[in-house]
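Appendix C. Worked example: Hemolysin activation/secretion protein
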Amino acid sequence: MLLAVLLSPAHAQVAPPNAGQILRQTEQAPQSLPPPQAPLKLDVENAGQSVLQAPPTAKFRVTGFRIQGNTVYPEARLQPLLHDAIGRDLDLAGLEEVAARITGYYRDHGFLLARAYLPAQDIHDGVVAIAVLEGRYDKIVVHNESLVRDWAADMPLQVLQPGDVVQTQRLESALLLTGDLAGVGDVASTLRPGSTVGTSQLDVAIPADRRVSGSVSLDNYGNRYTGGDRLGASLAVRSPLGIGDLFNVDGLVSDEHQYYGRASYQVPVGSYGTQIGAAYSALRYSLGKEFDQLDAHGTARTVGGFLTQPLIRRRDFNLSARIGVDKVELIDKIDLYGTRNARNLLNWTLSLNGNLRDNFGGGGVTSFSVSYLTGQLDFHDPLSKELDAISAHTEGHFQVWNFSLLRLQRLTDRFSLYGAFQAQVASKNLDSAEQFQLGGAYGVRGYPQGEGNGDQGYLATLELRYALTPAWQLAGFYDVGHVTLSKDPWTSDVNSRTLGDVGVAVRWNYAAHWSVDSALAWRVAGGTPDSGPDHNPRVWIRGSYYF
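Step 2, the predicted output written as structure tokens:
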């Protein structure tokens, strides 16, 4: 009887948190923009090229042009650039200007070393020869001082081969993918004249990054019943095997007997930035406060694998795809009543993630993602299976779409505007591990963690930020979210909720090692919270140390 009551939507907001909900809250991370992209370190040393010699006052009646040395573009593609010069009397400077059009066309399309020039020639019948040096690699020299072995550091650069035409985007992508390897610092490169005319030697310097880094944090972001105050730590070990691999471990403990740990490992494969990896996490919790008498506790374990593939890698635009599979085991027990609810999820996820830097309105950064999840939920206890069959019907196959969009827009040297939107659409009623969540420090900040959970909904944030000093930032914000409690309701109870708040935030950073994030939020929509005490305003604070 107790479980049947807890399964109804009318009680969903006041029911004891379970393993799925707690896991979702624990692994929730703030929507983030990509870190500032360091300028691409690419120096170009140009070599001179002899050109047609003629007296400055000499003029030539041009009847046509003959283009030679071009392989990237056919002559028919280049000739229209020169049509207006045919039939004119041009001096040497005029002919050089015409040849420069071809140079500009190549460089506008990313061939940064291409150069069209007037070779030594005798002009007959007014036909002028224009030679094109498209700019090819002579050889590629790598100076590797990173934590990555030479053969592994060379992998992203293998897409650049001697004899290939130097193309900006392809070169930029290879250098950035090299810099993405764990254990590699900021890559620098130089193109210098090669051993033959029209070729360049590419020198690539690959410095080392730190072997180990991590952080320790203290916050009050947790769920009241599993511990609002939390201590967290993370550690990253770069290239432990010397192949650009990465090992991460994260841990968290609360003041109400919640424990969480996660370990992941990923390794690069091939020359195109592909990464494959695996992860394992475990969570254990006991409920306190008003639910202490239930003697409720549970566990969540997740094991998964993933593959990520950069599709576009540039300084100003990036797009990547990710496919992952996770098996999740959830167990909840209420010892006071001797009940147990064990269930498994098997989820496949395909996602696209990207970011864009532009100069619109003074410059800004946009980040976006879309993901599709298809999963299977199975109950292992007959009573839980029976209760689900007469209520939410969550067991079986389900699908979930998630969308997010973020924008940080520069307004002035000190003011910026930040906006974020995320949404979830579900095919049916979901287990709590897959539900959309509104409340908490990463959602509608006027409400506690655990408030406003449902199968689908949206969340939007708008912040006006002011850089008081390089270390201090102030912000005023507005959060609003809406959630549908059950995709397919089975009672006549209210099935949706809208939450909103306004507030102020203060952020402090010091010497890249210390940071404090704090927020004060007042509710403006949604009424009194159900999942925690009625604090208005609500205070959130997080302090972190990075090493």
